[in-house]
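FORM 12-B: Structure-to-Sequence Request
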C-alpha cells in the first residue's frame, strides 16, 4: 500500500466577512429581520452592516431585574409627527435617531405614552430601547401632564426626566456628568446590555409584578 499523502493544513479558519446582510445580523442578534431594519433606520447600525458591531451587540448580556422594577420604552425610528391628526402634540418628530440632540431625544422619549404614572414615577429609572438595544436612560422626576387623543379612550402621559446617559455611535455609553452616583452604575450597566420584554405595547415593566398590557 502506498504511503498516505496528507492534505496541506490550512493557515486557519476562513476569515469572516467584514460586513453582513440583515438576515445574518438578525440570526446573530436573535431578533426579527424587521428589527434589524429598525436598527438601521435609527442609525444604530450603519450600512453596510459591520460584522464586528453586530458581534459586539450579540455578546451583551440581557438585563435581569433581581429586585424592584424597570420601566422600558420600546420605540421605533424617527419620523415626522402628524399635527393634523394630533393637534395637541407639538413635537416635530416621533421615534429615535442616533442624531437626535438631547432636547429632541427628550421630546421623543418622555411623551406621550399610555402608561401608569404612579408606577413610572415609583420605578424612577426609565430605559429607552430600539429592538432590544438600550439607547438612553432617564431618571423620571415628575409627571408633566396628560391628554386623550380624539380617537382614543385612555389618556397618554408626559413625564419630566433627567438624562443619565445615552448610546454613542460606537455603541459605548456616554454618561452625563451630573448623573447621581447611585444611578450612574445602574444606567451604564443598562446601556451595556440588551433588554427583552414580553409586553405588547411600547411601555413595559421589567421585573416586579405582572401588569396588564397598555398599548
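FORM 12-B RESPONSE
SEQUENCE OUT:
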Amino acid at each position: 500500500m502506498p504511503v498516505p499523502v496528507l492534505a496541506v493544513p490550512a493557515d486557519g479558519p476562513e476569515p469572516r466577512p467584514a460586513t453582513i446582510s440583515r438576515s445574518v445580523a438578525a440570526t446573530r442578534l436573535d431578533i426579527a429581520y424587521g428589527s434589524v431594519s429598525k436598527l438601521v433606520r435609527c442609525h444604530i447600525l450603519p450600512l453596510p452592516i459591520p460584522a464586528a458591531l453586530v458581534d459586539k451587540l450579540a455578546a451583551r448580556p440581557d438585563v435581569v431585574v433581581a429586585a424592584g422594577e424597570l420601566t422600558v420604552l420600546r420605540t421605533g425610528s424617527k419620523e415626522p409627527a402628524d399635527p393634523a391628526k394630533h393637534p395637541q402634540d407639538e413635537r416635530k418628530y416621533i421615534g429615535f435617531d442616533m442624531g437626535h440632540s438631547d432636547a429632541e431625544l427628550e421630546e421623543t422619549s418622555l411623551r406621550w405614552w399610555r402608561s401608569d404614572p404612579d408606577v413610572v414615577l415609583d420605578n424612577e429609572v426609565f430605559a429607552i430601547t430600539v429592538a432590544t438595544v438600550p439607547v438612553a436612560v432617564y431618571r423620571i422626576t415628575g409627571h408633566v401632564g396628560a391628554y386623550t387623543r380624539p380617537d382614543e379612550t385612555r389618556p397618554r402621559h408626559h413625564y419630566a426626566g433627567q438624562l443619565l446617559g445615552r448610546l454613542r455611535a460606537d455603541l459605548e455609553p456616554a454618561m452625563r456628568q451630573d448623573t447621581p452616583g447611585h444611578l450612574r452604575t445602574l444606567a451604564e450597566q443598562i446601556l451595556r446590555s440588551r433588554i427583552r420584554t414580553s409586553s405588547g405595547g411600547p411601555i413595559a415593566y421589567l421585573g416586579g409584578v405582572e401588569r396588564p398590557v397598555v398599548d
